[in-house]
Design brief:
Blueprint (H helix, E strand, L loop, with lengths): L1 E7 L8 H11 L5 E8 L15 E8 L10 E2 L2 H10 L6 H14 L3 E2 L7 H14 L5 H20 L7 E4 L3 H14 L3 E5 L3 H11 L5 H21 L2 E4 L2 H7 L9 E3 L21 E6 L8 H14 L3 E6 L6 H13 L6 E5 L12 E4 L8 H9 L3 E4 L4 H6 L10 E4 L4 H13 L1 H18 L2 H15 L2
Parallel strand pairs: 1-2, 1-6, 2-3, 4-5, 6-7, 7-8, 8-9, 10-11, 10-13, 11-12, 13-14, 14-15
Length: 468
């Protein structure tokens, strides 16, 4: 069995999160052959951060903004543009468009979708829309904005991936639409696994973006919603990490039989020789993650200022790579200087986290978006309690679900609320009984529901269930 596993902008070039999960899944499923497929933005030389396991027998990469030519593919003709004219109409019902587009793709999976730009239909459609809704906008800017919105999707739909027995996409988005079209071309099943909900993450990103003009934000959001709708409808199975995610997935897919939950899992044996640090002198807190905006490191630094005023012997270790967003890292270091925390906050850079876990009294996450963080599971395996923002599966991990409610393994606070984060850290410091009980709860929870062997077995069963 050969599985084409598709990553968008992550594995093998980005450390942590989805990449760690993917590398773990592949390397622990040794009897399955994998083709790793990476979706990049523009062609450029990059150094991979992971060495592929031996069962990765093929690697393929394509780029969203490359200027591809597809001479062997049939260009879009009148029959397709007539169908598109009926499907794509303002105000754009993404659910209905997703359904109709998927039916169109089923009949025509192997076209040069980028050829739409050369069609009279495309020109007439964009001119008509411009005259009705955006006549005050500069037409050249309007034209190239639409092009930049559409070319990544059209490239993803047209490119031929290596033929596999299953395509397993780790997001909807561009990776997902590529999986669906190639699944239809080769008549093989598609599995979708979502750690976070792609279309909701893109919506938040677009609404915050100052480089996208307000006039175009709705269009961007509806485009990503439509792509997700197509991917949900075309996937044979849709897995996610926790039940809360399914509420958003079911906005675009009503087939209950497609959905299942497969939580992340870690190899608890890797942490079995590490012991939890009970001494509070000093009180060491760790934040394990990349120094990037989505991890909201600045909120953790602001919280550290308040904590330092109450706990003099306090240290915050920010453990993770700092090179992904250099400007954000610079801003974080400036904030440390402004708050006079040079002796309190330490950026470790890329290190072996297992060397730091035995030195920590507490783990924190200040992220504004997460799936089901592996670092929380690793902390639990060592017995480190966790204070986290209420994002992704963090609440379920810390407070438990209906299947494993024991007691809290830490505290959950609102995102961006540095005062609540600081107060939670102080509470954990002052309440030894709660902290030590949380330590034991975390250990029990991770061994009960979040082991790697459980995760691997679940995915192996899933792969076998969809292969015809």
């Amino acid at each position: 069995m050969k599985v084409g596993i598709i990553f968008e902008g992550t594995y093998p070039y980005i450390v942590g999160g989805v990449s760690s999960w993917g590398n773990s899944l592949i390397s622990n499923m040794k009897d399955v052959e994998f083709c790793v497929i990476h979706v990049g933005d523009v062609p450029k030389k990059k150094a991979p951060k992971y060495n592929f396991p031996e069962n990765v027998t093929d690697y393929f990469e394509y780029y969203l903004f490359a200027n591809y030519k597809f001479p062997k593919k049939r260009e879009i003709g009148k029959e397709i543009t007539n169908a598109l004219e009926n499907i794509i109409s303002y105000p754009f019902d993404e659910n209905l468009m997703g359904k109709d587009l998927y039916e169109l793709f089923k009949k025509n999976p192997s076209l040069d979708f980028t050829s739409i730009f050369k069609s009279q239909f495309y020109w007439d459609t964009i001119v008509s829309f411009y005259e009705k809704y955006l006549p005050y906008e500069n037409f050249t800017n309007y034209y190239w904005t639409l092009y930049s919105m559409l070319i990544p999707s059209l490239n993803s739909m047209t490119v031929d991936l290596p033929k596999c027995d299953i395509y397993h996409t780790i997001t909807t988005g561009y990776a997902g639409i590529s999986a669906i079209l190639n699944g239809l071309k080769y008549n093989v099943p598609v599995i979708l696994t979502e750690h976070g909900i792609y279309h909701r993450e893109r919506q938040l990103e677009i609404l915050r973006a100052d480089w996208i003009k307000e006039e175009f934000k709705t269009g961007w959001i509806k485009l990503f919603n439509t792509i997700s709708s197509v991917v949900y409808k075309g996937s044979d199975k849709i897995t996610t990490l926790f039940s809360e995610n399914q509420k958003y997935e079911k906005e675009f897919c009503s087939k209950e039989e497609k959905f299942l939950i497969i939580p992340n899992g870690i190899d608890t044996n890797k942490f079995s020789n590490l012991t939890y640090r009970k001494s509070k002198t000093p009180f060491n807190v760790g934040l394990v993650g990349r120094v990037v905006e989505i991890k909201d490191i600045k909120t953790a630094i602001k919280a550290a200022k308040i904590v330092k005023q109450r706990i003099k012997d306090f240290k915050l270790f920010i453990i993770g790579p700092t090179d992904e967003e250099p400007e954000y890292f610079r801003e974080c270091k400036e904030l440390v200087d402004i708050l006079n925390l040079q002796d309190t906050v330490e950026f470790t850079g890329m290190v072996d986290v297992k060397e730091y876990y035995p030195e920590l009294n507490l783990m924190i996450l200040s992220s504004v978006s997460e799936g089901q963080p592996l670092v929380i599971l690793e902390a639990f395996a060592v017995g480190i309690p966790v204070v986290s923002t209420n994002v992704g599966a963090c609440r379920e991990l810390i407070y438990g679900s209906k299947e494993d409610f024991i007691s809290p393994a830490g505290i959950v606070v609102k995102p961006k609320d540095f005062i609540s984060l600081a107060n939670a850290i102080i509470y954990m410091y002052e309440n030894d009984k709660f902290r030590l009980n949380a330590s034991e709860t975390g250990k029990k929870r991770v061994h009960m529901r979040y082991r790697l062997d459980q995760m691997i077995e679940n995915y192996k069963k899933l792969y076998l269930s969809v292969v015809k």
